[in-house]
């Protein structure tokens, strides 16, 4: 699959920014009513009626209303946002934790639905669909060569539990068409990517967002790690833009002792709502490390702040995003919604970690870019925090407010063998697209290999490294990987492992040389 030169930098940028922008907007409490009575509201309603009934030309007044709402919210704060009906359903589903469908991971590849990997034990896997298959028809509906929008495609593949769909599949490896009947079922949307032991006593849990099922996923992973002998725990919320704060609070409760303060909120009336840990914690002893970076926001910061302020564990990484506002969701009759900031939250020591937004939304979201320029992604001494924002934990440790969680152990961006552009590129969707193309050309090159045989094969060749360098040049990025060879090969190998063997194997490879994991082991007692 070729990515148009002009779109490749955008793909990378969107991949990096989406987690913070979307996740940060989702730190809300569900509510369904939004009532307001004032003269300005009546004025707006009358104006829309005047335009509808009297304006000389036909005008789509719905678009005017949406524009008005956007403009109003833009005057408030960066996280008070309007979500149109077309986007709201998708966002709600992503935060729900599951959906009903056929259970496949796929790319739109040359205008066809190409299967990356069927969900393990899901409906498609049970029906016999394999990685690399193309779905040509869903029942009688043609899916290839039509440039179908995602919402139309998803609607065709989703349905009710137990409903049946006939898929016509082209299997490239066998050069034949196959018809398969698939029974739709509930497909989980995991917010915990992996829980695994890194050594005999250190467990690792990666959380990608805080959705409805995050706490239950975390609890299952934590109990499994304890049963395997874990005495230390690493919680990775790097690039986690947030979500439901209640899920982060529930996870913190597992780690903190009874009656320790987790977080408190304060609204415009000055009302304070405090949330304390309960007796139910299942990991109240043992080392805890939380990994954060500049894209860790919102609920991720609530969790990190609770651990840091209670002297419960060690925060490792780089200063987090700095989102300390709480939203409430209000639904409109047309399926749209508005998320309105209704409070600020504070960590247990009383600090707000919300960064300033007085210069407007664009400057607010580009603040992370300035961290490159001022050097703070490479040197902790470059982090500028006002002395007036110093707070002390009960054990006397100095912590800071006013713009994110400052880590206890600073780990610079992993650029010792290359540029920051390379480091971010390797964690973007571009690597996944490249690997899929390589597998699609010659999947048989890995057929029958055990995981260890696969590792040996990848370590012994520069074929994919050289091909990836060529691929990047062809798609308009002037990035030379000569000084980053080991880093690039590691991420390529990890992505091959993910698509061939599963998510756990991706992390097995990436984490072995991960700078933050190394910092944890160096400081583990």
Produce the secondary structure layout.
Blueprint (H helix, E strand, L loop, with lengths): L7 H18 L2 E3 L8 H16 L6 H14 L6 E3 L1 H12 L1 E4 L2 E6 L2 E7 L4 H5 L6 E5 L2 E2 L7 H8 L6 E8 L4 E8 L1 E4 L3 E6 L4 E6 L6 H14 L4 E5 L8 H11 L5 E6 L5 E5 L10 E6 L6 H11 L4 E4 L7 E7 L5 E10 L14 H5 L1 H7 L16 E3 L5 E3 L8 E2 L9 H6 L3 H13 L9 H9 L3 H12 L10 H17 L1 H10 L2 H9 L2
Parallel strand pairs: 1-18, 12-13, 13-16, 16-17, 17-22
Antiparallel strand pairs: 2-19, 3-10, 4-5, 5-6, 6-7, 6-8, 8-9, 11-12, 14-15, 14-19, 18-19, 20-21
Features of this protein?
Pdz3 Domain; alpha+beta; 2-enoyl-CoA Hydratase, Chain A, domain 1; disordered N terminus; 525 residues; 6-stranded antiparallel β-sheet; globular
Describe the structure.
It is a single chain. Helix content is 38%, strand content 22%. The chain contains 18 helices and 22 strands. The protein has 525 residues and is an alpha+beta fold. The model is unreliable at 1-26 and 28-36 (pLDDT under 50). The chain folds into three domains: 1-81 and 191-327 and 339-413, 2-enoyl-CoA Hydratase, Chain A, domain 1 (Alpha-Beta Complex), CATH 3.90.226; 98-188, Roll (Pdz3 Domain); 420-523, no CATH class. The relative contact order is 0.12. The protein is globular. The strands form five sheets. Strands 1, 2, 14, 15, 18 and 19 form a six-stranded mixed sheet that branches. Residues 175-356 form the Tail specific protease domain. This is Carboxyl-terminal processing protease. The chain crosses the membrane at residues 7-28. Keywords: Hydrolase, Membrane, Protease, Serine protease, Transmembrane, Transmembrane helix. Pfam families: PDZ_2, Peptidase_S41.
């Amino acid at each position: 699959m070729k990515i148009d030169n002009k779109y490749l930098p955008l793909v990378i940028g969107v991949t990096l920014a989406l987690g913070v922008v979307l996740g940060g907007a989702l730190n809300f409490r569900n509510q369904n009513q939004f009532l307001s009575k004032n003269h300005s509201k009546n004025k707006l309603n009358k104006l829309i009626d005047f335009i509808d009934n009297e304006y000389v030309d036909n005008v789509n007044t719905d678009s005017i209303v949406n524009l008005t709402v956007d403009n109003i919210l833009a005057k408030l704060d960066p996280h008070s946002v309007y979500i149109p009906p077309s986007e709201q359903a998708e966002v709600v589903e992503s935060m729900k934790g599951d959906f009903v469908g056929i259970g496949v991971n796929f790319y739109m590849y040359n205008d066809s639905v190409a299967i990356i990997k069927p969900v393990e034990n899901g409906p498609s896997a049970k029906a016999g669909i394999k990685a690399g298959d193309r779905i040509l028809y869903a029942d009688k509906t043609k899916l290839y060569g039509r440039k179908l929008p995602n919402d139309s495609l998803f609607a065709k593949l989703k349905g009710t539990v137990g409903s049946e769909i006939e898929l016509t599949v082209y299997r490239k490896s066998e050069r034949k068409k196959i018809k398969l009947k698939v029974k739709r079922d509930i497909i989980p949307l995991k917010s915990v990517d992996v829980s695994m032991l890194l050594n005999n006593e250190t467990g690792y849990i990666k959380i990608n967002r805080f959705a409805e099922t995050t706490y239950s996923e975390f609890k299952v992973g934590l109990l499994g790690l304890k049963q395997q002998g874990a005495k230390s725990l690493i919680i990775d919320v790097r690039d986690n833009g947030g979500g439901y704060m209640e899920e982060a609070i529930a996870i913190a409760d597992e780690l903190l002792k009874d009656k320790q303060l987790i977080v408190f909120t304060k609204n415009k009336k000055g009302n304070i709502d405090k949330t304390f840990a309960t007796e139910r914690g299942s990991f109240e002893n043992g080392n805890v490390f939380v990994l954060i970076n500049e894209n860790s926001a919102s609920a991720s910061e609530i969790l990190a702040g609770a651990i840091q302020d209670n002297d419960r564990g060690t925060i490792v990484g780089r200063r987090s995003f700095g989102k300390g506002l709480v939203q409430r969701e209000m639904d409109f009759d047309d399926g749209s919604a508005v998320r309105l900031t209704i409070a600020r939250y504070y960590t247990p020591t009383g600090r707000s970690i919300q960064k300033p937004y007085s210069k407007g939304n664009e400057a607010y979201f580009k603040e992370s870019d300035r961290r490159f320029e001022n050097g703070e992604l490479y040197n902790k001494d470059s982090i500028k925090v006002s002395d007036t924002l110093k707070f002390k934990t009960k054990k006397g440790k100095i912590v800071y407010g006013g713009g994110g969680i400052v880590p206890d152990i600073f780990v610079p961006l992993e650029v010792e063998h290359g540029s920051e552009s390379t480091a971010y590129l390797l964690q973007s969707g571009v690597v996944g697209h490249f690997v899929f193309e390589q597998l699609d050309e010659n999947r048989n090159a890995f057929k029958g290999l055990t995981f260890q045989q696969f590792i040996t094969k990848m370590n012994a060749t520069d074929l994919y490294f050289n091909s990836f360098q060529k691929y990047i040049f062809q798609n308009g990025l002037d990035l030379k990987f000569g000084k980053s060879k080991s880093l690039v090969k590691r991420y390529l190998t990890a992505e091959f492992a993910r698509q061939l063997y599963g998510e756990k194997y991706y992390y097995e490879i990436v984490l072995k040389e991960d700078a933050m994991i190394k910092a944890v082991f160096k400081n583990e007692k």
